[in-house]
Give the backbone structure.
Amino acid sequence: MLAAILVMAGIAVAIGLALGWSAIRFKVEGNPLAEKIDAILPQTQCGQCGFLGCRPYAEAIAKGEADINLCPPGGEEGVKKLADLLGVEPKPLDETHGAPKPKSVAFIDEQTCIGCTLCIQACPVDAISGAAKQMHTIIAAECTGCELCLPPCPVDCITMVPIAEDLPHWKWKHPVVMLKQVSGDSSA
Amino acid sequence: MSRELFKFKGGVHPPEHKAESNARPVRAAPLPKKLVIPLRQHIGSPAKPLVSVGDRVLKGQMIGEADGTISAAVHASSSGIVSAVDQQPVPHISGLPDLCISIETDGRDEWVEHRPLDYRALAPADLRIRLRDLGLAGLGGAVFPSAVKLDPGAAQHCPTLIINGGECEPWITCDDVLMRTRADEILQGVAIMRHLLGSTEILVGIEDNKPEAIAAMQAAAARMDFAAEIMVVPARYPGGGAKQMIQVLTGREVPSGKLSTDIGIQVFNVGTAYALARAVHHGEPLISRLVTVTGHVLRPQNFEVLIGTPMHALITLAGDRDGTTGVLMGGPMMGMPMPNLDVPVVKATNCILVQSAELFPPLPKALPCIRCTRCADACPAELQPQELFRFAKAGDFGRAQEYHLFDCIECGCCSYVCPSHIPLVDFYRYAKSEIWTREKDKRAADLARERHEFRQFRQEREKKEKAEKLAAKAQAKRAELAAAPDAGGAAPSEADAKKALIAAALARAQAKKAETAPKNTDHLPPGTQREIEEIEARRAKIRELARQPLESDEKP
Ligand code: SF4
Ligand code: SF4
Ligand code: SF4
Ligand code: SF4
């Protein structure tokens, strides 16, 4: 009987040690929860949440150090998705960090640009091309609309242009159906 | 005939309204003064414009080239001068404009040089490129580039070729009339398809409400040197849907999320076969098609129409009437309301259906779903439309996809039978388009994440490289100092070397500063000079203070 208990205890200790060791030895880089949160964040990399990009914000949420309603580009829908993932109640967006805006891309007035390269250094996704003393251009398909290139420009030649709806981007709208109310039925 | 036919589930039988338009002979619509030819007339990438304003173009000249694999060229439908290459209204429900080439026609209708292709002598891949450059796209409604569909792919051949003459949608008769009048050319097109796909079994499905078309096609098939079976299928909407036609003719079902070619079947519309024959045997690009103009007009009929002709011209030709409430492109079940009538006829325009309150009374107000499941009984895709509706309405797109939203062919049977008159299909279109947009956004976010991570990696690397360079420099300096005769004689300690290094650097910096000292500090009034000196002294003190704890740190 005693031997059996000892054997069991021994096995438990051995497994515990092995697990502890493997936890250190095979430590996965990054936090899987942070990864999942990062997958929901819009990747605008604008820093409006108060962190240096989406990934640091995701890590802060994962550690419980930041609230889930700080990302304006993600909007209410983003907050809802985060709440679903974390199993908490969704809350309204914290407007002190900014309000959601229509999607836009930066546009450089190439006549005014002096080619100082300051915007390139500010762009978090390398979406601006150009060399020193040459005019700079935004690669619209890669611009996330973070607005980080606006303040550094010494000649204020960058503006944000909302993305206009065109045929390839057109979406069917939610049908506006006048559902006739049937007395006693409010489910529709 | 002798072959056993199968059935597809669901379906409806709306009033046919075919007799209105199929009795009159086909008439060529006159050449309009201006043609507006959209560059996006097919599924896939739009064509790239090849002409600019002021160019003279000939009939059949390529004015937009195919861009990428899934694309097709567009051509001038008549000769004239290019008057604009810009955004113009196109036949799309949104009313949004798209890039078009406008041509002021000169009335001469002068052809570009064109000659037949010897399709048997050409390598299949070359032939497909020629067909893409001749602008061939499916004329049954989906306008998928035909050259892509004519590639059997890795399988080398596609055993079964189905030619779809179903034309199940009410009011439309352009395929019916085409089969009655041009059966031989349709089958010549089929011969080319058969050649490219290596098909051994050719089935032509025609609904039993088109006896003249069936007779004409049977007579033509008897004249051909290959076997094409003309199969008469019972008329039931949406029997002309590709998947339904496959099921009725072969009894086989295309699995969810798969293509018909995955089970060795390819389907083409009769109009596409005809256009293919014109392209190969005459070298003519796709610049015209048959269009049914029907509904609330004086003389419903079929016209041979040049692509780019404005729709209002056709309605005038058919005799417009007072009391028009709207115009659909396509039939009443799947057609799309047109935002205005200046929009041109495109390759996808099979029918222009003019509506009146009498023919198409407005639907009564929608009522809540009573879960009668009549929609599910009518659905040919065997879906649960009432559930799809519930999820789409609530924005629960994940569940909608679990219920096979993407198997919905938007046939409208469910809306047609719904006793609550819910526009169900609109909800499915909304849900599909919402899902596509989200996927696009997700891809964009992934790209941004990747680029951001790469940027961080790059910055990190640059920082490291810089640090390494500095370290190497410091090392060199240290070696230099160590080599220099040392006043103390003793080997300099690491700390001493560091100090010497710092001192040297400081001296260098000071020398540099003195060199580049701003001129405006040279000749200052004594008062200012004194102030500056005071500040400098304060600074030196702060520096001293800042250094102290550091050194005291080092001692123990
Ligand atoms: S606020 Fe900007 S940086 Fe922060 S998570 Fe949202 S998109 Fe990313
Ligand atoms: S910051 Fe302004 S001026 Fe400088 S390169 Fe960018 S756009 Fe040009
Ligand atoms: S037919 Fe209409 S009312 Fe009946 S279950 Fe379907 S959606 Fe609901
Ligand atoms: S529109 Fe879609 S859901 Fe409705 S009957 Fe047709 S395939 Fe089924």
